[in-house]
Amino acid sequence: MMRSLYSGVSGLKTHQIKMDVIGNKIANVNTTSYKAQSVTFSELMYQTTQTASGANAETGKAGVNARQVGLGVKSGATKINIETAGSSQSTGNPFDIRIIGDSFFVVNDGTKNFFTRDGSFYVEGAGNLAMSSNGYNVMGWQVDAQTGKIRKDTVSALQIMSPENMTYPPEATTKAYIQGIIDKNDPQVSSEAGRIVSVSLFDNRGYAYTAKLTMKATGEEGKYTVELDDLLDSAGNSVKTDDVKLGSVQSLAEPKTLTLATGYRIEGTNLIYKDDDGVEQSINLNDPNISASDKAKIANAYGYTTFDEFAKNYQTSGATETTLKTMFNNGQLANALNADGSITSDGKQIVGGVIQYSPATGVIQSVNGLTTNLKLNLTFGDDPNSAFEEIEINFEPSSNFNNNKVSTIAAVSGDTEGQGTGRKLGEMSGISVQNDGMIYAAYDNGQTKLLGQIAVAKFSNASGLQKEGDNLYVSTLNSGDFDGIGVDISADGGYMTTGVLEMSNVDLSSEFTEMITTQRGFQANSRIITVSDTLLEELVNLKR
């Protein structure tokens, strides 16, 4: 039988294989991250009919080359064009990720790791980042619970929407600062009510509150008082503040005479006034058990809005300071009256702080003569069940300048670097993937949290990877092994881009050209069989 017949058959088979590869490439022209293959041919084998001989120096006869007849062709290799990247396809989906570089995503089917360039991901029902096509989990590194940083250990599934990641825990406010200008000519600052400065704060459970502080001028140059006026919850309701401590009790010299307002008079130990119907009423100033409304009347009689504010005034008796409140509680308030019903006050007590600005420069000098900080203790008498933390209020950013009778003093939660602000419970509002594969969650309380990092695999011979379908590869002896840990994509200059996918790297113009040459090769090999058949026919016909 003629050897050319078998050579033709081998040619048909190898060109058919090449056509199969071309057809597969064209079929995958729009497959995400598909890497084109190419087939190379090699000679099958040779039959040697005469070996080569060397030259004979004695006779002068030259050497003779070997006589060999080829027996056909075979497919030498099927190579993957894995180094050439495909074009980018914009999707706008934040979980569509393209690798720039020669790395591979690591995915797992529950038992085995695979590698892929297909970055079309989604978050499945259990909260894991997974491949959209087959649900395989995307593998990466977890966050160390102690340090809050990535721990590069054996890769595991990235559960980015676990129950603990859906919320960000609340935190109590521990710091605040006062900024702006307090102008001594501001009518609010010099009034009895003072200027209100509101501090927004949170407790450990994330409930919001507002502490209303009042700043007042003392009459001394550069000296002001600050006291807690009220504590409001998020609904605007007052919270009991009897045990709240702001700074300490300060005795402040502020001599003044408290005179009776029009419509009030004193008879013995009684305060006389007329009610709304014009009927005279009396309040015994030495009665410690009078009603809250009568206390308010006493305060109004001496020009104060509240009894507590009125009762802070004190008289000096030697080295002992006796407040009007103490005298009232002891049933002795009437003893503080002058003959005309007025009260001579040598000063008052405040529960808060005395802020001293430099009369020369207007910058802060001290709070209560010590530091520039004032501590607000909302633990309600050191209640062990209190959800509040002590808040340190820094007055250093404030100043005492002329600002055309307008004060701009205001409170800001947290310190000047944004620490200690406190926060409410945060709900997850978004997820982003950075260029290095780190995944962050954003929360509606302004916080961000590191959830994990997508790890990648690198191979010394990526072309040696074996295709497994579904855009997946597995490692082989010739590609190099995966160590189970992976690498950071940015280690060699690579990075990830979100919202885009890598397209197929099939070049249709090249494939159609290859198809033509393959068709002609197949056609030529079929002619070998046809001609060889004709020759055999002539040989058979010799017997006729």
Descriptive overview:
This protein has about 550 residues and is an alpha+beta fold. Strands 7, 8, 11, 12, 13, 33, 34, 35 and 36 form a nine-stranded antiparallel sheet that branches. The two termini are about 20 Å apart.
Properties at a glance:
single chain, Tick-borne Encephalitis virus Glycoprotein, domain 1, 4 domains, nine-stranded antiparallel beta sheet, eight-stranded antiparallel beta sheet, alpha+beta, 544 residues
SSE layout and pairing:
Elements: H1 3-27, E1 37-43, E2 46-50, E3 67-70, E4 73-80, E5 88-90, E6 97-100, E7 104-108, E8 113-116, E9 121-123, E10 129-131, E11 137-143, E12 150-157, E13 167-168, E14 175-181, H2 187-190, E15 195-202, E16 208-217, E17 223-233, E18 245-246, E19 248-252, E20 256-258, E21 265-267, E22 270-274, E23 280-284, H3 292-301, H4 307-311, E24 313-317, E25 320-323, H5 324-329, E26 343-345, E27 347-357, E28 364-367, E29 373-377, E30 391-394, E31 398-399, E32 410-413, E33 426-433, E34 438-443, E35 448-454, E36 456-457, E37 466-469, E38 472-474, E39 495-498, E40 500-502, H6 508-540
Parallel strand pairs: 14-30, 14-31
Antiparallel strand pairs: 1-4, 2-3, 5-40, 6-39, 7-8, 7-11, 7-36, 9-10, 11-12, 11-35, 13-33, 14-32, 15-16, 16-17, 17-27, 18-29, 19-27, 20-26, 21-22, 22-23, 24-25, 24-27, 27-28, 29-30, 33-34, 34-35, 37-38
Helix pairs in contact: 1-6
Nutshell version of this structure?
With 544 residues, the protein is α+β, with helices and mostly antiparallel strands.
